[in-house]
Write a structure and sequence with these properties.
The protein is an alpha+beta fold and 196 residues long. The chain has one domain: Sufe protein. Chain: A (Alpha-Beta Complex). The protein is 36% helix and 26% strand. The protein contains seven helices and six strands; from the N terminus they run αβαβαββββαααα. It has a six-stranded antiparallel beta sheet with strand order 1-6-5-4-3-2, with helices on both faces. Strand 5 and strand 6 form a beta hairpin. Helix 3 packs across helix 7 and helix 4 packs across helix 7. The relative contact order is 0.16. The N terminus is likely disordered.
């Protein structure tokens, strides 16, 4: 045995790169509530007189479908869907919350679906102290209007396509992509866990 090798010969530059990428520091700052969930639930279902919560546990088959259809694994094992009914007991809509965790921390988006299964609106509810200015800049650009009417299977990145990082700024454009990713995850979760 020659020398004192700590790493096997198979430890290549590519492996070293993976180790370094995995070691990218996360600099998560405290979470900031941009809008309270309760306020979003009430405001997103106009005409609702009664509200109910449906808690859905994510089963093994659900995890597999979410991974196959959405390309991600949910961080939670249960999700809450808030239903609003009008005075006649008819469904007005469904609101729920999807979150994406990135190196800057969590971004949460509230999604409100119509009874027909279209996205009525999406609202950013949480960011972090660091990302809040970037998220707000992305919101001022009209980003959220681009999500209205989307259905499960549609690509929320189309709302970001019209925004350029040159016009918006690099970090607000990046955060717009994170918001679109949260909307995508929400639509997949709705399709797999709630939609009939």
């Amino acid at each position: 045995m020659k020398g004192n090798r700590i790493f096997p010969a198979a430890f290549s530059a590519g492996t070293a790169l993976l180790v370094l990428v995995g070691a990218v520091p996360r600099h998560i700052t405290p979470t900031v509530v941009l809008q309270k969930q309760a306020d979003v639930i009430r405001a997103s279902m106009p005409g609702a007189r009664q509200f109910f919560v449906r808690t859905v546990n994510v089963g093994r088959f659900d995890f597999d479908r979410i991974r196959a259809e959405g390309g991600f694994e949910p961080d939670e094992e249960e999700f809450k869907f808030y239903l609003g009914e009008d005075a006649n007991g008819d469904l007005v809509g469904v609101t729920f919350f999807a979150q994406v965790n990135n190196q800057h921390g969590p971004v949460e988006v509230g999604l409100s679906m119509t009874p027909e299964g279209g996205l009525r609106e999406a609202v950013v509810t949480k960011a972090t102290v660091e990302t809040k200015p970037w998220v707000l800049a992305a919101l001022r650009s009209g980003l959220m209007r681009g999500f209205g009417g989307l259905r499960p299977g549609d690509d929320p990145r189309t709302a970001v396509a019209a925004l350029t990082s040159a016009d918006l700024g690099e970090m607000p454009h990046y955060m717009a992509g994170v918001v679109a990713q949260a909307v995508h995850r929400g639509l997949v979760l709705y399709d797999v866990l709630y939609a009939p």
